[in-house]
Amino acid sequence: MAATTLLSTVLVLLVTGTLCNRDPIMLTVANGLTQTRHTYSSSVAYNGVLLGAMKQLRMEDSSFNFTTRETQDYGPYLVSVNGLAGSDEDHTYWQLLVDCVNGSSTVAQVGVGCYIPKPNEHIILNFTTY
């Protein structure tokens, strides 16, 4: 019975297009050490995670690339963006920021594998030190 209900729900979502909708987002790659920035346009599936939008962008734009490392407790960890990797020795890493309406930005409380962007949201991948 539960399988039939689940299948019916998935079919309704597919027919109505809910699973196919993609919302636009902006993704900025910022190097906080050199003050350089590059902004990309991407899209994310309805209620999809940022990692999916990043994979979509990587397929569409060869100038954007990234690597992740899977961690047992926290899921995907962003290791490098566009060839620049964080380093324990240099105390550098990629910080996930979200632009706020007032022009400030906040640190996301989850990583790229869990963060669900809102439509038209501006996400910043910021290379910085700890």
Automatic annotation (TrEMBL):
Record carries keyword rRNA processing: no
Range of residues in the leader sequence: 1-20
An annotated GO BP: cobalamin transport
InterPro entries registered for this protein in UniProt: Cobalamin_Transport, Transcobalamin-like_C
Pfam families in the cross-refs: DUF4430
Molecular functions (GO terms): cobalamin binding
Gene3D superfamilies: 2.170.130.30
Any single Gene Ontology cellular-component annotation: extracellular space
Keyword field: Signal
Key word Signal present: yes
Source organism superkingdom: Eukaryota
Domain Transcobalamin-like C-terminal: 70-128
Protein name: Transcobalamin-like C-terminal domain-containing protein
